[in-house]
């Protein structure tokens, strides 16, 4: 039995931006699910405001939207900052 040497090693298939994007999307999914759950439970005094500008209804859809957009923007800005700063790293592999 011979091993297939044509395929790239596992580390090359799962490393890099693909993993970061997958984790980012998974976190957004969790944020949406938790927002929908909070909207379903609907505790008193929960009136989500998107960026302090847009009032959203305290429904499952409104809370899920609030969670996904808020977490998406915050994490997205941080990931873009890391990507920008990493351009100046002399030890990076190209």
The residue fraction in helices comes out at 55-70%
Fraction in beta strands: under 5%
**Order of adjacent strands in the largest pleated sheet:** 1-2
Radius of gyration: 20 Å
Order of helices and strands: HHEEH
Number of domain units: 1
Uncertain spans: none
Number of helices: 3
Mean residue pLDDT: 84
Distance between the termini: 34 Å
The tally of strands reads: 2
Derived from helix and strand composition plus strand pairing, the structural class reads mainly alpha
Largest sheet: 2 strands, antiparallel
Q: In one word, what is the shape?
A: elongated
Main features:
single chain, 94 residues, mainly alpha, two-stranded antiparallel sheet, elongated
What is this structure, in a nutshell?
The chain is mainly α.
């Amino acid at each position: 039995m011979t091993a297939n040497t044509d395929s790239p090693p596992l580390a090359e298939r799962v490393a890099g931006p693909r993993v970061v994007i997958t984790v980012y999307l998974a976190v957004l999914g969790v944020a949406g699910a938790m927002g929908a759950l909070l909207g379903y439970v609907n505790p008193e005094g929960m009136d989500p405001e998107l960026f302090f500008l847009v009032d959203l209804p305290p429904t499952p859809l409104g809370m899920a939207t609030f969670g996904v957009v808020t977490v998406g923007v915050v994490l997205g800005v941080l990931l873009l900052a890391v990507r920008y700063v990493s351009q100046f790293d002399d030890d990076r592999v190209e």
